[in-house]
Amino acid sequence: MAKVSPPPECLFKPMNFPHKVLMGPGPSNCPPRVLGASALPMLGPMHPEFTLIMDEVKAGIKYIFQTNNEWTVCVTGSGHAAMETACLNLLEPGDTVLVGINGLWGERFADMVHRQGIDVKTLHRPTGEVFTFEEIEEALKKHKPTLLSLTHGESTGGTLQPLEGIGTLCHKYNCLLLVDSIASCGGVPLFMDLWGIDCLYTGAQKVLSAPSGASPISFSKRAKEKVKNRLTEVRSLYFDMNHLANYWGCDGEARRYHHTGPTSCIYAIRESLAVLAEQGLEESWKKHKHCAELLYEGLEKIGLELLVKDKSIRNPCVTVVKVPDGVDWKSVIEYTRKTYRVEIGSGLGVLVGKVWRIGLMGYNCTPDNVRLVLRVLEEALRVTRTAKL
Ligand code: PMP
């Protein structure tokens, strides 16, 4: 018999689990109730007890999205999986997509579209700014896209894209509206049906405060029609909404096995949706606004400046703070991590080294956490500045 390679030494040691306070742009810490749910016994993907939990998840997603769309499911994977699902199902060769880019997430979506060989047009704004109604209309007239993609909460720049009226505008130009609400849903007002959003997705690990692994997505009637009337097959079996809608019990037919869903993640998201339902969306929106205002005030008091000047377009879930001149951004992050196990996020894309990002989402969004993050940040600035002298 061939000689078996020895087992890896590392697996004989216990895993290292420091308890960290995750105050970056995601993931958030999970409430014990959600972590507890993820440790519940396994069920098979077609067991009636599990499909009932899937139905409850669906109802919860409809609530947080404020939609009645039949095609409302969780895709298996992190937020990127939801982005891929939207891209793969809603587009086919011959389509033109207009992507609003004011941070990394628009760039990512444009990249996904490009990889499908589909024509991408882009509309740019510096990170930290949002698109105006007028410039969107101009671009719709010019490019005649079949889909417009916008990021509601741009976690790169801390902005919140105003969306009211954009759905109606898109429909006037025969275009579907796709919205990324990964860093905003649950923390700010969002009305999928009322605002005419055709496809909306979010992630589990932000305001929902559940482990990443199952991502909610919903398709309007228009969006569903677009998928149903495709001339070509969806170029992914795994993310094909025709299969997923059946597996999630959205098409009135008997459910067929499609893939083994991430059971523990589905339990966890079921509980996190229950937490949000019990609190109520309006209360959650109020809480995020209140904590964000406390944070803005505190940051100003310690002499820090926010990237987004206009309060009305700030995303309360992710605040982007400018690194002052002469401050070593990395030392500050390392100090808060090593001294207090408080994680603050660094900049992304063009803002690497120029900003920090502070997340206040779901379970982590509390006045106590605001005070904690302000205290450790102030101390880190003082200590790292002194250390340099
Ligand atoms: N879109 C936005 C706005 C995000 O903030 C993120 C995650 N930071 C993503 C998409 C990607 O999600 P994930 O990391 O879960 O794949």
UniProtKB/TrEMBL annotation:
Listed SUPFAM superfamilies: PLP-dependent transferases
CDD domains: AGAT_like
Entry keywords, A to Z: Aminotransferase, Pyridoxal phosphate, Transferase
Molecular function terms, GO-annotated: alanine-glyoxylate transaminase activity
Swiss-Prot/TrEMBL catalytic activity: glyoxylate + L-alanine = glycine + pyruvate
All copies of domain Aminotransferase class V, residue ranges: 46-366
GO biological process: carboxylic acid metabolic process
UniProt record similarity statement: Belongs to the class-V pyridoxal-phosphate-dependent aminotransferase family.
Stated name of the protein: Alanine--glyoxylate aminotransferase
Natural source organism: Sinanodonta woodiana (Chinese pond mussel)
